[in-house]
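Running this now, will post back.
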Amino acid sequence: MPETIDGLFDTAIERYKAGEPATDLIPVFKDLCDRAPKSSPAWTCLAWLYLLDDKAALAHKAAQKAVKLNPQDAQARVNLAVAMLETGQKGLREHVSFAQQLIFVNPDWREEIEQSMADGLQRKPGWESLQKVKNWILETN
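Update: finished.
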């Protein structure tokens, strides 16, 4: 019996949480995005992995898809803002502001974003773009 998309996604998330490197997981999430092109969580994860792997242009494309599919996803907005910063794109203030609003109305989302950013900074120490976005989103609330 073939695994469901949700099952594959959950397995891939567990692998990430277990510390598997982004380079190993990128093909897994690319496959998930190919199989479920309307899955905002899959695109959000793929964008994050690309950012961890210093592939900002690919991260930007994936994050744009994630935000288009689910504009209310704070993590997708964070990923897009970081990718925009790393690729020198204009207009990231809109995404930072929207992410601030989202985490303001839902404390659970704020906690998830804080954990995600801490994880990113642990996996990629000295990640300047993420640190800037973190300061803009979390320190100004």
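The mean pLDDT is 94. More later if anyone needs it.
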